[in-house]
Amino acid sequence: MRRLTTLTTLIGAASLLAAPSASGATRDYWVAAVPVTWNIVPNQRDAIMGMEYAPSETVFGTVVYRRYTRNWRRPIANVPAGSGNSNLMPGPLIRARAGDRLRIHFKNLDTAFNRSHSMHFHGVHYKPSSDGAFVPGVSGRDGDVKPNRTWTYRLTAGNDSVGAWPYHDHGPSMHESIEGGMWGMLSILGKRERAPDREYVVVFSPMGSFQAIDGRAFVGNTPVFRSRVGDLVQWDVMAMGSEHHTFHVHGHRWKNAMGVDVDTQTVGPAESFRVRWREDAPGTWLYHCHVETHMEAGMIGTYSVAPRRT
Amino acid sequence: MRRLTTLTTLIGAASLLAAPSASGATRDYWVAAVPVTWNIVPNQRDAIMGMEYAPSETVFGTVVYRRYTRNWRRPIANVPAGSGNSNLMPGPLIRARAGDRLRIHFKNLDTAFNRSHSMHFHGVHYKPSSDGAFVPGVSGRDGDVKPNRTWTYRLTAGNDSVGAWPYHDHGPSMHESIEGGMWGMLSILGKRERAPDREYVVVFSPMGSFQAIDGRAFVGNTPVFRSRVGDLVQWDVMAMGSEHHTFHVHGHRWKNAMGVDVDTQTVGPAESFRVRWREDAPGTWLYHCHVETHMEAGMIGTYSVAPRRT
Amino acid sequence: MRRLTTLTTLIGAASLLAAPSASGATRDYWVAAVPVTWNIVPNQRDAIMGMEYAPSETVFGTVVYRRYTRNWRRPIANVPAGSGNSNLMPGPLIRARAGDRLRIHFKNLDTAFNRSHSMHFHGVHYKPSSDGAFVPGVSGRDGDVKPNRTWTYRLTAGNDSVGAWPYHDHGPSMHESIEGGMWGMLSILGKRERAPDREYVVVFSPMGSFQAIDGRAFVGNTPVFRSRVGDLVQWDVMAMGSEHHTFHVHGHRWKNAMGVDVDTQTVGPAESFRVRWREDAPGTWLYHCHVETHMEAGMIGTYSVAPRRT
Fold first, then answer.
1. According to a count of CB atoms within 10 Å of the terminal CB, is the N or C end of chain B lower?
2. pLDDT below 70 — which residues of chain A?
3. Span A291-302, pLDDT tens digits
4. Which chain B positions have a beta carbon within 8 Å of C282's beta carbon?
5. Cα–Cα distance measured from residue B283 to residue B199, given in angstroms and rounded to the nearest whole number
6. Closest of C178, C71, C72, C35 to residue C119, by C-alpha
7. Residue C83, pLDDT score
């Protein structure tokens, strides 16, 4: 009760007009920007083409978003265990339902590159002070969180926020940060919408000379997603960078947002969509970007469907 | 009355079958191709990255479409004042309602480059003689209007023409002309559709090494669009050139044509769409192409929403 | 009767659960991969720009899919005569109705390059053994059909398979094969859907330094599609390769899958869509990719509509 009152005061009356009725929960996420050493191709090979890569070609230092417990006491997994996703790319999966308020407590721990960072969220309602974009003479501290400083982004999920959406650095060095992996997704369900049994986050982005999924390249490094016949599976798909991609899953079709059956769907930079189906096709399948040069550069992985439990 | 009769004779019976019932207005536009000197970055700077550009890097000679009064007597603004759009790119905003006929009287005043030009319109009904495309051995004068010559393009807006559409040069040197800014938009409302309170034209196109919006690059040069809380705002978005873009506005979401809530939307060469919302988010916001290399090269601007008038 | 029983046994119970009720037909196609010498620009010219090309710039050896009679006895046309399509690119037009089963009998006759090939189909239901993708340690012979070997792909068209879909090589050298023309389309109608009077297959793909439609570049080489006023025409459009395209037809608009009127539509690698309209616009019209550099490199053709028969 006290929390809601405080939040109302902070957000102010104007934005509440646009927000859904105040019956939702308030969800807190604690996130930090942390420097890490990252290997795009941990097994050092492209299994399909039979190519080997040296660590000098695949390892680099970068900054990522990492989820923490309250007050940034202890780092925890960005995406729930068993999801198949790497631990640090994408950043924390921010979950909410329409009507909820989100407080994203962000701390910049980038003492390696010593750069300002921020978080800019798609799909949700917020005031300019939670926009997170750096525009000299216009934006405030939300778009320019200096090392060892913090900022709290206050967001509201409306009924028009249902879906899967990107967030990413929009600070002064956003272009380097985005290529380095400073992005993640929001997954927002409708007020009474059924949660999926399995949820996979797929982020297409270039990394150096590779084309990565969740920061990894080539089968054996990219996430292995797993389900079972009968599961309601959900894919949260987005792209970051400068290229358009086409998301394809073998042996499956889905209804796109228009109710049209497709098995390949374009996603451009910062576009995003949710794909859902009731699983019925046991086997090991490929999922990949169907842009030929992207497949060749690593944008491909496997999806494994177990038979129905008997 | 006399006008309609003449028009009927000129268009001929065949195309009338496809056209809507003859209750609409006939609208005349007078347009010329005129040589101009254009500065892509008038303030000579990229305010976000803190970069300076010399005029030698940003000024070039080109040809644009310009609106005139009847019989090309006097040039007038391409887009109504207060719209935020530059005066010469895009070309004249051609407005109509479903059921209307349009006569676009075009004169080629390109005495600088001395090239043939034309106008090719998307979204509307017309006979081949109003197509405006240059195909040797097939097309006529409509696709090859030589300097100091004129051509009248006769178009009909059907019920299937409602929306925002491109037009552009389709003459023998169309590729240079399009990179130089020879394009504009048609904005066609349904027969009884409400007109927006504010209408913004956003054309994404490359210009030399820059990525421009309406022929300008970087915040401070690109159009500053303005509205007020409560306004019905409409964005007419298209792309020209060879690249795909993703249109994004901060702090807002809209229903795309399928009724799906998005805040980022792909637009490829000559694709176009209309975005509408009732404004409810006061503040200064960024709008931009979300392709990273395009943002870096100038494809970004600001949108300013004033509080509700009290 | 005997055929259906055999097929049921082979497909197995699991996939039948997902498949439509067993009232459909079983359709057999006999296809081989065959080496050919191909000329992208048979008339050696770009008629619009007035450029000439030498055969040394336009002729190359490649491998294509070719349709045969039963047991690969005799080659036949890939696409029915009079369609305007080239004979060998695209590969055989695979037609079915929702509920049908398809058996695609594939033989690799590529004795020129001596490479393994396969067929991977979009939009239809199949078991992993009919997927056709090469993944070392995972896939079987379906993804790696060696020269002079055969494989039968067993597919089912569901209600969610209605539309136009790609198929293509997904073997070990798929990237070279796809650039060389190893692709075609499936066209699947609803159970009681009306077949079109004219059906055109449009595949956008790069070929060397050209941008081709169905393996040909420039007006005069690309397919000339023909119809008559009153015809129900259908365009099956897809892209192969690494680039996004925008399909545009002059003088026409169509409802896209969302019921929105468009005349230009993005198609990325392995995306596909069907466009239908009742023809009402006599004349010779251009159809093309609206990406400027693609138009310049050959991705343009003509569509000729005869007046209504009197």
1. C
2. 1-22, 81-86
3. 999 999 999 999
4. 14
5. 18
6. C178
7. 67
Tokens representing residue A247 in the block? 């998301």
* Chain A residues whose beta carbon lies within 8 Å of the beta carbon of residue C123: 253, 261, 263
Closest partner residue to B175 (CB to CB) among C50, C245, C292 is C292
Q: State how far the Cα of A29 lies from the Cα of B66, in Å rounded to an integer.
A: 53
Cβ neighbours of B138 in C, within 8 Å:
284, 302
Q: Is C178 helix (H, G, I), strand (E, B) or coil?
A: helix
- Going by C-alpha positions, the residue among B279, B249, B244 that lies closest to residue B262 is B249
Asked, as a colleague might, if the bond just before B90 is cis with ω within 30 of 0, I would say: yes
Following DSSP, what letter does each residue of B286-305 receive, concatenated?
EEEE--HHHHHTT-EEEEEE
Using a CB–CB cutoff of 8 Å, tell me whether B257 touches chain C. yes
Would you call B35 an interface residue with chain C, using a CB distance cutoff of 8 Å?
no
Q: What is the pLDDT of residue A275?
A: 95
- Give the separation between CA C59 and CA B244, rounded to whole angstroms: 31
DSSP string, C160-174: GG-EEEEEE--STTH
Nearest to C239 by CA among C131, C165, C162, C157: C165
CB count, 10 Å around CB of B251? 26
CA distance A290 to chain C (A): 6
Cα–Cα distance, A160 to A146 (Å, whole number): 32
The C-alpha of A201 sits at a distance from chain B's nearest C-alpha, in angstroms, of 18
Residue C87 touches partner B, C-beta closer than 8 Å: no
H helix or E strand, kind and range, residue B128: none
d(C-alpha C166, C-alpha C267), whole Å: 12
Longest dimension (CA), chain B: 64
Residue among A135, A144, A91 nearest A117 (CA): A144
Instruction: Find all residues with CB under 8 Å of C176, minimum gap 6, and list them.
Output: none
| Residue given tokens 């049994």 in the structure block | A197
* pLDDT, tens only, B292-306: 999 999 999 999 999
- Euclidean distance between CA atoms B181 and B64, whole angstroms: 6
| pLDDT at C7 (0 to 100) | 29
Q: Which pLDDT score is estimated for A173?
A: 95
Q: Any idea which residue has 């798929």 for tokens?
A: C174
Output phi, psi for A269, to 5 deg: -50, 125
Question: Which candidate, A68, A140, A70, places its Cα nearest to that of A109?
Answer: A68
How confident is the model over C193-248, as pLDDT tens digits? Answer: 999 999 999 999 999 999 999 999 999 999 999 999 999 999 999 999 999 999 99
Torsion of CA B78, B80, B84, B90, to 10 degrees: -20
* pLDDT tens, chain C, 310 aa long: 233 333 223 223 333 333 444 578 999 999 999 999 999 999 999 999 999 999 999 999 999 999 999 999 999 999 876 666 667 999 999 999 999 999 999 999 999 999 999 999 999 999 999 999 999 988 999 999 999 999 999 999 999 999 999 999 999 999 999 999 999 999 999 999 999 999 999 999 999 999 999 999 999 999 999 999 999 999 999 999 999 999 999 999 998 877 789 999 999 999 999 999 999 999 999 999 999 999 999 999 999 999 998 7
Query: Does B307 contact A at CB distance below 8 Å?
Result: yes
Our CA angle for B119, B123, B129, nearest 5°, is 45
How many residues are listed for chain B in this entry?
310
Q: Is the pLDDT of residue B9 over 70?
A: no
CA distance A52 to A98: 46
Q: What is the ipTM of this complex?
A: 0.90
Q: Annotate B154-196 with three-state secondary structure.
A: EEECCHHHCEEEEEECCCCCHHHHHHHCCEEEEEEECCCCCCC
* C242 has a chain B CB within 8 A of its CB: no
Residues of C in contact with B257 (CB under 8 A): 256, 258, 260
User: Does C268 sit within 8 Å of A248, measured CB to CB?
Assistant: no
